[in-house]
Design a protein that fits this description.
eight-stranded antiparallel barrel; mainly beta; 282 residues; disordered N terminus; ten-stranded antiparallel sheet
Protein backbone atom coordinates (compact mmCIF):
# COMPACT_ATOMS: atom_id res chain seq x y z
CA UNK A 1 0.00 0.00 0.00
CA UNK A 2 1.27 3.49 -0.89
CA UNK A 3 1.36 5.89 2.12
CA UNK A 4 -0.15 8.82 0.25
CA UNK A 5 -0.99 10.82 3.42
CA UNK A 6 2.66 11.95 3.62
CA UNK A 7 2.73 13.33 0.04
CA UNK A 8 2.19 16.94 -0.98
CA UNK A 9 -1.34 17.54 -2.29
CA UNK A 10 -0.25 17.88 -5.95
CA UNK A 11 1.82 14.69 -5.78
CA UNK A 12 -1.06 12.97 -4.04
CA UNK A 13 -3.28 13.80 -7.06
CA UNK A 14 -0.69 12.45 -9.51
CA UNK A 15 -0.48 9.16 -7.62
CA UNK A 16 -4.26 8.78 -7.56
CA UNK A 17 -4.52 9.43 -11.32
CA UNK A 18 -1.75 6.95 -12.07
CA UNK A 19 -3.55 4.30 -10.02
CA UNK A 20 -6.91 4.83 -11.75
CA UNK A 21 -5.72 5.11 -15.39
CA UNK A 22 -5.06 1.36 -15.89
CA UNK A 23 -8.63 0.66 -14.74
CA UNK A 24 -9.94 3.25 -17.20
CA UNK A 25 -7.89 1.80 -20.06
CA UNK A 26 -9.13 -1.71 -19.30
CA UNK A 27 -12.79 -0.67 -19.52
CA UNK A 28 -12.58 2.03 -22.17
CA UNK A 29 -14.35 1.70 -25.50
CA UNK A 30 -11.08 2.35 -27.38
CA UNK A 31 -9.41 -0.86 -26.22
CA UNK A 32 -9.34 -3.13 -29.31
CA UNK A 33 -9.56 -6.20 -27.10
CA UNK A 34 -12.99 -5.12 -25.85
CA UNK A 35 -14.51 -4.18 -29.21
CA UNK A 36 -16.63 -7.06 -30.58
CA UNK A 37 -16.35 -7.96 -34.25
CA UNK A 38 -18.92 -6.32 -36.51
CA UNK A 39 -22.21 -8.02 -37.29
CA UNK A 40 -23.29 -9.03 -40.79
CA UNK A 41 -26.83 -9.15 -42.13
CA UNK A 42 -27.67 -12.64 -43.43
CA UNK A 43 -30.80 -14.62 -44.30
CA UNK A 44 -32.44 -15.74 -41.04
CA UNK A 45 -32.69 -19.32 -42.28
CA UNK A 46 -32.86 -22.36 -40.03
CA UNK A 47 -31.50 -25.52 -41.65
CA UNK A 48 -31.44 -29.00 -40.15
CA UNK A 49 -30.50 -31.86 -42.44
CA UNK A 50 -27.71 -33.73 -44.14
CA UNK A 51 -26.27 -34.79 -47.45
CA UNK A 52 -26.11 -38.32 -48.79
CA UNK A 53 -22.39 -38.82 -49.47
CA UNK A 54 -19.48 -36.55 -48.55
CA UNK A 55 -21.66 -33.90 -46.94
CA UNK A 56 -22.83 -34.83 -43.46
CA UNK A 57 -24.83 -32.69 -41.07
CA UNK A 58 -26.05 -29.26 -42.14
CA UNK A 59 -27.15 -27.19 -39.14
CA UNK A 60 -27.87 -23.43 -39.17
CA UNK A 61 -29.71 -21.15 -36.77
CA UNK A 62 -30.63 -17.80 -38.35
CA UNK A 63 -27.90 -18.18 -40.95
CA UNK A 64 -25.05 -19.26 -38.65
CA UNK A 65 -24.03 -22.84 -37.96
CA UNK A 66 -21.84 -25.63 -39.23
CA UNK A 67 -21.56 -28.29 -41.89
CA UNK A 68 -19.73 -31.61 -41.89
CA UNK A 69 -17.55 -32.22 -44.95
CA UNK A 70 -15.73 -35.52 -45.31
CA UNK A 71 -16.20 -36.07 -41.58
CA UNK A 72 -14.83 -32.65 -40.58
CA UNK A 73 -17.11 -30.20 -38.78
CA UNK A 74 -16.61 -26.66 -40.10
CA UNK A 75 -18.17 -23.41 -38.86
CA UNK A 76 -20.22 -21.88 -41.67
CA UNK A 77 -22.30 -18.86 -42.67
CA UNK A 78 -25.27 -18.78 -45.04
CA UNK A 79 -24.68 -15.30 -46.41
CA UNK A 80 -26.98 -15.05 -49.42
CA UNK A 81 -30.38 -16.21 -50.68
CA UNK A 82 -31.40 -16.52 -54.32
CA UNK A 83 -34.94 -17.33 -55.43
CA UNK A 84 -34.98 -19.62 -58.48
CA UNK A 85 -38.64 -19.13 -59.29
CA UNK A 86 -38.53 -20.93 -62.64
CA UNK A 87 -37.84 -24.20 -60.81
CA UNK A 88 -39.57 -23.41 -57.48
CA UNK A 89 -36.20 -23.60 -55.73
CA UNK A 90 -34.43 -21.41 -53.19
CA UNK A 91 -30.62 -21.32 -53.04
CA UNK A 92 -28.59 -20.42 -49.95
CA UNK A 93 -24.92 -19.63 -50.57
CA UNK A 94 -22.64 -20.74 -47.73
CA UNK A 95 -18.97 -20.03 -46.92
CA UNK A 96 -17.04 -22.25 -44.52
CA UNK A 97 -13.37 -21.21 -44.31
CA UNK A 98 -10.59 -23.14 -42.64
CA UNK A 99 -7.00 -21.96 -42.39
CA UNK A 100 -5.72 -23.56 -45.59
CA UNK A 101 -8.91 -23.96 -47.63
CA UNK A 102 -12.28 -22.41 -48.39
CA UNK A 103 -15.40 -24.55 -48.62
CA UNK A 104 -18.33 -23.06 -50.51
CA UNK A 105 -21.71 -24.77 -50.45
CA UNK A 106 -24.85 -24.07 -52.44
CA UNK A 107 -27.85 -25.47 -50.55
CA UNK A 108 -31.07 -25.85 -52.52
CA UNK A 109 -34.50 -26.22 -50.97
CA UNK A 110 -38.02 -26.62 -52.33
CA UNK A 111 -41.07 -25.81 -50.19
CA UNK A 112 -38.93 -25.63 -47.02
CA UNK A 113 -37.45 -29.08 -47.73
CA UNK A 114 -33.78 -29.64 -48.49
CA UNK A 115 -33.35 -30.76 -52.08
CA UNK A 116 -29.68 -30.83 -53.05
CA UNK A 117 -26.30 -29.47 -51.95
CA UNK A 118 -23.33 -28.50 -54.09
CA UNK A 119 -19.79 -28.18 -52.73
CA UNK A 120 -16.51 -26.76 -54.00
CA UNK A 121 -13.15 -25.91 -52.44
CA UNK A 122 -9.53 -25.36 -53.42
CA UNK A 123 -9.03 -29.12 -53.54
CA UNK A 124 -12.46 -30.30 -54.73
CA UNK A 125 -14.11 -29.59 -58.03
CA UNK A 126 -17.75 -28.63 -57.89
CA UNK A 127 -19.91 -31.67 -57.20
CA UNK A 128 -23.44 -32.33 -56.01
CA UNK A 129 -25.42 -34.79 -53.94
CA UNK A 130 -28.98 -35.12 -52.73
CA UNK A 131 -29.88 -33.77 -49.30
CA UNK A 132 -32.72 -34.31 -46.83
CA UNK A 133 -34.11 -32.22 -44.01
CA UNK A 134 -35.65 -28.78 -43.66
CA UNK A 135 -34.73 -25.21 -44.60
CA UNK A 136 -37.11 -22.72 -42.96
CA UNK A 137 -36.91 -19.07 -43.96
CA UNK A 138 -39.62 -16.40 -43.95
CA UNK A 139 -37.60 -13.95 -46.05
CA UNK A 140 -36.27 -11.91 -43.12
CA UNK A 141 -32.65 -11.11 -42.27
CA UNK A 142 -30.72 -11.28 -39.01
CA UNK A 143 -27.70 -9.37 -37.72
CA UNK A 144 -25.24 -12.09 -36.77
CA UNK A 145 -21.68 -12.30 -35.43
CA UNK A 146 -20.38 -15.75 -36.50
CA UNK A 147 -17.11 -17.21 -35.24
CA UNK A 148 -15.62 -18.47 -38.50
CA UNK A 149 -12.09 -19.76 -38.85
CA UNK A 150 -9.63 -17.34 -40.45
CA UNK A 151 -8.62 -18.17 -44.03
CA UNK A 152 -4.86 -17.79 -44.55
CA UNK A 153 -4.23 -19.58 -47.87
CA UNK A 154 -4.98 -18.86 -51.52
CA UNK A 155 -5.26 -21.39 -54.37
CA UNK A 156 -1.88 -22.44 -55.76
CA UNK A 157 -0.62 -24.76 -58.49
CA UNK A 158 -3.25 -27.18 -59.72
CA UNK A 159 -5.83 -25.62 -57.39
CA UNK A 160 -6.03 -22.62 -59.76
CA UNK A 161 -8.01 -22.45 -62.96
CA UNK A 162 -6.00 -21.07 -65.86
CA UNK A 163 -8.07 -21.67 -69.01
CA UNK A 164 -9.39 -18.15 -69.60
CA UNK A 165 -7.65 -14.87 -70.41
CA UNK A 166 -9.28 -11.58 -69.37
CA UNK A 167 -7.91 -8.18 -70.42
CA UNK A 168 -9.12 -4.90 -68.97
CA UNK A 169 -7.98 -1.82 -67.07
CA UNK A 170 -9.74 -2.83 -63.86
CA UNK A 171 -10.00 -6.61 -64.26
CA UNK A 172 -7.37 -8.89 -65.81
CA UNK A 173 -6.35 -12.52 -65.56
CA UNK A 174 -3.93 -14.84 -67.35
CA UNK A 175 -1.77 -17.86 -66.49
CA UNK A 176 -2.90 -18.05 -62.89
CA UNK A 177 -2.28 -14.38 -62.07
CA UNK A 178 -4.82 -11.58 -62.08
CA UNK A 179 -6.07 -8.39 -60.47
CA UNK A 180 -9.48 -6.82 -59.85
CA UNK A 181 -10.43 -3.33 -58.71
CA UNK A 182 -12.69 -3.31 -55.65
CA UNK A 183 -13.69 -0.07 -53.93
CA UNK A 184 -10.93 1.83 -55.78
CA UNK A 185 -8.27 -0.61 -54.58
CA UNK A 186 -6.42 -3.30 -56.52
CA UNK A 187 -6.97 -6.83 -55.22
CA UNK A 188 -5.29 -10.03 -56.39
CA UNK A 189 -7.61 -12.46 -58.19
CA UNK A 190 -7.29 -16.23 -57.65
CA UNK A 191 -9.91 -18.31 -59.52
CA UNK A 192 -10.14 -21.90 -58.26
CA UNK A 193 -13.28 -23.14 -60.00
CA UNK A 194 -14.72 -22.72 -63.49
CA UNK A 195 -18.31 -23.33 -64.57
CA UNK A 196 -19.34 -23.39 -68.22
CA UNK A 197 -23.00 -22.42 -68.24
CA UNK A 198 -23.25 -22.11 -72.00
CA UNK A 199 -26.38 -24.27 -72.01
CA UNK A 200 -28.02 -22.89 -68.88
CA UNK A 201 -29.97 -20.16 -70.66
CA UNK A 202 -32.94 -20.59 -72.99
CA UNK A 203 -30.59 -20.11 -75.96
CA UNK A 204 -26.87 -21.04 -76.10
CA UNK A 205 -25.87 -17.53 -77.13
CA UNK A 206 -27.30 -16.24 -73.85
CA UNK A 207 -25.11 -18.48 -71.71
CA UNK A 208 -22.22 -17.49 -69.49
CA UNK A 209 -19.00 -18.64 -67.81
CA UNK A 210 -18.20 -18.37 -64.10
CA UNK A 211 -14.85 -17.99 -62.34
CA UNK A 212 -15.32 -18.77 -58.63
CA UNK A 213 -12.51 -16.83 -57.01
CA UNK A 214 -10.64 -15.81 -53.91
CA UNK A 215 -9.59 -12.16 -53.86
CA UNK A 216 -6.86 -10.71 -51.66
CA UNK A 217 -6.75 -7.00 -50.81
CA UNK A 218 -3.74 -4.71 -50.36
CA UNK A 219 -3.68 -5.34 -46.60
CA UNK A 220 -4.03 -9.12 -46.96
CA UNK A 221 -7.80 -9.19 -46.40
CA UNK A 222 -9.56 -12.02 -48.21
CA UNK A 223 -12.93 -12.52 -49.83
CA UNK A 224 -14.90 -14.79 -52.14
CA UNK A 225 -16.87 -13.85 -55.24
CA UNK A 226 -17.77 -14.96 -58.75
CA UNK A 227 -16.69 -13.38 -62.05
CA UNK A 228 -19.31 -13.77 -64.79
CA UNK A 229 -18.38 -13.66 -68.49
CA UNK A 230 -21.24 -13.47 -70.99
CA UNK A 231 -21.24 -15.23 -74.35
CA UNK A 232 -23.52 -12.64 -75.95
CA UNK A 233 -21.67 -9.64 -74.45
CA UNK A 234 -17.92 -10.38 -74.65
CA UNK A 235 -16.98 -6.83 -73.61
CA UNK A 236 -18.63 -7.12 -70.19
CA UNK A 237 -17.72 -8.93 -66.97
CA UNK A 238 -19.52 -8.82 -63.63
CA UNK A 239 -18.10 -9.59 -60.17
CA UNK A 240 -20.86 -10.48 -57.73
CA UNK A 241 -21.92 -12.62 -54.72
CA UNK A 242 -18.89 -11.05 -53.06
CA UNK A 243 -18.31 -11.49 -49.34
CA UNK A 244 -15.29 -10.21 -47.42
CA UNK A 245 -14.06 -12.74 -44.90
CA UNK A 246 -11.98 -10.51 -42.61
CA UNK A 247 -13.91 -8.67 -41.38
CA UNK A 248 -17.14 -10.25 -42.55
CA UNK A 249 -18.89 -7.83 -44.87
CA UNK A 250 -21.03 -7.98 -47.97
CA UNK A 251 -19.29 -6.66 -51.06
CA UNK A 252 -20.79 -4.92 -54.03
CA UNK A 253 -21.86 -5.86 -57.53
CA UNK A 254 -19.29 -4.47 -59.99
CA UNK A 255 -19.39 -4.37 -63.80
CA UNK A 256 -16.18 -4.17 -65.84
CA UNK A 257 -15.34 -3.44 -69.48
CA UNK A 258 -13.05 -6.23 -70.67
CA UNK A 259 -12.15 -8.54 -73.51
CA UNK A 260 -11.80 -12.24 -72.82
CA UNK A 261 -11.06 -15.51 -74.55
CA UNK A 262 -10.44 -19.16 -73.79
CA UNK A 263 -6.74 -19.82 -74.18
CA UNK A 264 -6.79 -23.62 -74.03
CA UNK A 265 -9.08 -26.44 -75.03
CA UNK A 266 -11.14 -27.44 -72.02
CA UNK A 267 -12.14 -31.00 -71.27
CA UNK A 268 -15.46 -31.95 -69.65
CA UNK A 269 -15.03 -33.15 -66.09
CA UNK A 270 -18.43 -33.15 -64.42
CA UNK A 271 -21.98 -32.20 -65.30
CA UNK A 272 -23.30 -29.48 -63.00
CA UNK A 273 -26.59 -27.75 -62.38
CA UNK A 274 -29.03 -27.14 -65.24
CA UNK A 275 -26.69 -27.97 -68.09
CA UNK A 276 -23.51 -26.34 -66.81
CA UNK A 277 -20.36 -28.28 -67.73
CA UNK A 278 -17.76 -28.22 -64.94
CA UNK A 279 -14.47 -28.23 -66.81
CA UNK A 280 -10.80 -28.02 -65.99
CA UNK A 281 -7.67 -28.02 -68.04
CA UNK A 282 -6.19 -31.53 -68.58
Amino acid sequence: MIATRFLRPWLHAVVLISLTLPWLWGCGGDDPATVPPPTISVPAVTIEGQGTDRIGALSFDRGVGHCVIDGERVAALAYNRINWDAYDLVLFSVVAPVRDNLHVLYIYSAADTLHRVWHESYDDTLYTELASGSALHDGTSAERRPALESLAAVPVGLQRFEGVEITGDRLSYRDGAGTIEISDEIWDLHPFEFVDCGECASAPENGWLELHSIVVGPDGERGFGIVYLYLNDPDRAVFTYFIRLDPLEHGGHVTFTVSWDRIAELTPDRQTNRGADRRRLP
